[in-house]
Backbone:
């Protein structure tokens, strides 16, 4: 949603392509900036619910639907009385992630110049964080509201539990839609795809536009590919890309090691507290990233990182010469740890423990057995989880905007936001950087989908 905001402004802004096409002067984003924020978030985050719904439907036993049909239940009755109750946990999990993500989103409101939201108020409150308690109070209110809404949803939607005796033993049969039904389904998919692609199309077109040459017209009047070269070669943007690569790689390596350890404890051992450990690993998905980032800011101002503390020179966020790198790596790693844990757990559950025990019986140590037997067998899961950690860390917004305060420390997303504030060619170079980021994320998600298949949706479950 952060990058897509640039494209939405170019398409439906007052001098955007839509008004030029319709020959109107609707000021949609001027009169209703909130609408632009909502549209950008909805079009960008709906795949999370889609992945959860896909994973839930894949585990649904088709025999239940067939039994209801044999008893005379129609399609809609079967859907509302059988299918929907059984996939409701997956929908609730995806909806929770989307709500918390949207509720605490910082980048998109900033891009639309919409400041009447709590995350933006917290962001600008960093200027007075050392002298005022207001930013801390706003952060607590944000966290408390997110928890309260989640608890309320859990009570309302999770009150009645529906469960199958076992997962699906066979896949449900596909029914081809023909005639009017097929056309309606195709039209529905086409509309959703068109709306989802619209922001990205706007970003791509902006990235190829010469400065000032897309104003009041359907398409840009002059084109150039120089913004992409500028995005990769200009000192500030190149430094930002380099910073993000280093930070994301550090977070990925840390998460892979920690993910293997945690997943092994969850699947291969019977130690007490495994359920608590699993819940703690999934907690970063439920805790807003903005809250975590502000927590690191608070840590940097207190002992041992604060002034005159023993670690004051090792890591800091505010001040004349800060060093936020340790905090950024830690924030990225903690935020994306659930991805690698869930994918590794899935791999271990599909791998027989007898292979490991055979290696131990032949004289190998437990560590050697895991390194030489288990890790190669779950390598696809580790690669998929690592790719997700790396790509999402590269495009992390809240942590980057709050923790990096100096230009030399800017990650990719902070550089994009900074460029949009620059007059002249700034928004166009920012769009080019955004396209590079979208390409990275698209390749990563396709690769992870190939490696994990329908289990990809389970990564986003709370």
Residues:
């Amino acid at each position: 949603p952060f990058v897509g905001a640039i494209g939405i402004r170019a398409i439906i802004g007052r001098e955007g392509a839509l008004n030029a096409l319709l020959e109107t002067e609707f000021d949609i984003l001027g009169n209703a900036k909130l609408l632009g924020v909502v549209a950008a978030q909805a079009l960008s985050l709906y795949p999370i619910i889609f992945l959860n719904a896909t994973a839930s439907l894949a585990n649904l036993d088709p025999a239940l639907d067939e039994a209801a049909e044999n008893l005379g239940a129609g399609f809609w009755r079967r859907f509302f009385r059988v299918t929907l109750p059984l996939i409701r946990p997956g929908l609730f999990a995806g909806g929770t992630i989307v709500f918390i993500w949207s509720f605490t989103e910082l980048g998109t409101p900033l891009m639309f110049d919409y400041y009447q939201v709590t995350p933006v108020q917290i962001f600008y409150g960093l200027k007075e964080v050392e002298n005022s308690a207001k930013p801390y109070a706003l952060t607590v209110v944000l966290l408390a509201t997110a928890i309260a809404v989640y608890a309320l949803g859990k009570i309302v939607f999770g009150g009645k539990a529906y469960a199958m005796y076992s997962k699906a033993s066979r896949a449900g049969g596909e029914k081809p839609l023909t005639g009017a039904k097929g056309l309606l389904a195709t039209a529905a998919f086409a509309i959703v795809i068109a709306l989802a692609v619209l922001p990205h199309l706007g970003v791509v077109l902006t990235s190829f536009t010469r400065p000032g040459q897309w104003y009041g017209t359907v398409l840009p009047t002059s084109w150039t590919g120089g913004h992409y070269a500028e995005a990769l070669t200009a000192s500030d943007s190149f430094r930002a890309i380099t910073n993000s690569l280093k930070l994301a790689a550090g977070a990925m390596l840390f998460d892979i090691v920690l993910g293997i350890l945690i997943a092994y404890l969850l699947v291969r051992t019977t130690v007490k507290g495994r359920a608590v450990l699993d819940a703690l690993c999934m907690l970063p998905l439920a805790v807003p990233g903005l809250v975590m980032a502000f927590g690191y800011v608070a840590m940097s101002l207190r002992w041992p990182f604060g002034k005159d503390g023993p670690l004051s020179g090792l890591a800091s966020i505010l001040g004349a010469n800060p060093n936020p790198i340790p905090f950024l790596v830690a924030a990225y790693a903690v935020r994306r740890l659930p991805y690698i844990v869930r994918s590794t757990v899935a791999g271990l559950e599909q791998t027989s423990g007898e292979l490991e025990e055979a290696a131990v019986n032949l004289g190998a140590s437990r560590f050697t057995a895991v390194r030489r037997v288990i890790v190669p067998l779950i390598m696809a899961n580790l690669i998929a989880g690592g790719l997700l950690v790396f790509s999402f860390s590269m495009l992390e917004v809240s942590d980057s905007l709050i923790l990096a305060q100096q230009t030399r420390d800017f990650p990719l997303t902070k550089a994009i936001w900074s460029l949009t504030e620059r007059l002249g060619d700034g928004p166009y170079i920012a769009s080019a950087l955004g396209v590079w980021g979208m390409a990275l994320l698209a390749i990563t998600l396709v690769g992870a989908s190939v490696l994990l298949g329908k289990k990809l949706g389970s990564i986003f479950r709370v």
The domain at 4-163+194-460 is CATH 1.10.3720.10 (MetI-like fold).
